Amino acid sequence: MNNIQLxxxxxxxSEMETAVYIAALELGEGTMQELAQKSxxxxxxxxxxxxxxxxxxxxxxxxxxxxxxxxxxxxxMLMEIQKRxxxxxx
Length: 90
Known about the structure:
- By secondary structure, the chain is an alpha+beta fold.
- The chain has five helices and three strands; from the N terminus they run H-H-E-H-H-E-E-H.
C-alpha cells in the first residue's frame, strides 16, 4: 500500500473507495464503466462507492453529450476533509 492509499484510508475511505478515487485521478475523467475497469471494482457495486465519494466532495459529476462523467477532485481536497474532521472533533 502506498502513501496515497494510506492517506485516503486515514480520512475514512474504504479500500474500494480508495481504488475508485485513485482510478478517477489517473483517468482525469471517466464514465462509470471506465472507473469500474480502472479500479477493478465490479460495476454493479461501484455506484455505492461513487455516491459516497460525491457526498464527501472527492468525486464530481458532470454531463457531456448525454454521457455522465466523473472527475476526481484535486488531492488538496483531502486536506480540507481532514481539517473538517479535526474541527468537528473539537
